[in-house]
Amino acid sequence: MMTIISLLLLASLLPHLTFTARANVGIVNGREAKPHSRPYMVSVQFKEHHICGGFLVSDRFVMTAAHCRNKHVNLMVVVGAHDLSNSEILDHISVRNYIPHPDYIICNLQNDIMLLMLYKKVRLNNNVGLISLPKNNKDVSVDTLCSVAGWGRLWTTGSPSDRLMEANVTTLNHEECQRKWELSYSALQMICAYGSGGSCKGDSGGPLVCGDTAVGVAVIHQSYLKCILRFQHIFNG
């Protein structure tokens, strides 16, 4: 019964995510987020090491990128965190079920979205909260100011950040995205954004937030060099 409910939830949530992000990526050239200003942010971990971001869409489900589990069998999540170095006070929750998009293709990362069903419900409070999803399938307008956040690398060859970082990005039009990303880009599923800061390794699975809504999932799988050469990211959904 749980699996059926999970699949129904996935089916109901996915159409509302206008885009997800094409990126295995910390926040480069960003700033430290105000502690607990993004209570929906989740650290997805393997053996208590951060590997991806995620975000709470209900008190039992985390949305992240499907590729985050490719090499990691048993994942855990940490909710309500700002500084991951305070491991003794972090709430680690095991994942009960992994529900990738039914059309996820690992070789080209189309539909790179996954729901994690947690073993227990999280307790919502000032530090742990949900983020809303789009209420329709309308595209995000060009030149919309959005943001990304995560605990990933602060620079291309650097270490992950212990503290949650964030950066502003602005959406581009499909033609520009297609020209820059070529076959990696699908206008039906994706959007790309640019800024002076952005995602790098370790930020996959985190949300692209426009206003107070998560409109995409970051899943960038480009060379780390692009974290420095151009802060442009694809969001696929």
Explain how this protein is built.
The chain is mainly β. Helices cover 11% and strands 30% of the residues. It contains 3 helices and 13 strands. The chain has helices at residues 2-13, 174-181, 225-229; strands at 31-32, 41-46, 49-56, 61-64, 76-79, 91-100, 114-118, 145-150, 165-171, 190-194, 207-210, 213-217, 232-236. The protein has a 6-stranded antiparallel β-barrel with strand order 2-3-4-7-6-5. Strands 1, 8, 9, 10 and 13 form a 5-stranded antiparallel beta sheet that branches. A two-stranded antiparallel ribbon has the order 11-12. Strand 2 (41-46) and strand 3 (49-56) form a beta hairpin. It is globular, with a radius of gyration of 16 Å. The model is unreliable at 1-6, 18-26 and 222-233 (pLDDT under 50). This is trypsin. Pfam families: Trypsin. Residues 27-227 form the Peptidase S1 domain. GO terms for molecular function: serine-type endopeptidase activity. It is found in: Secreted, Extracellular space.
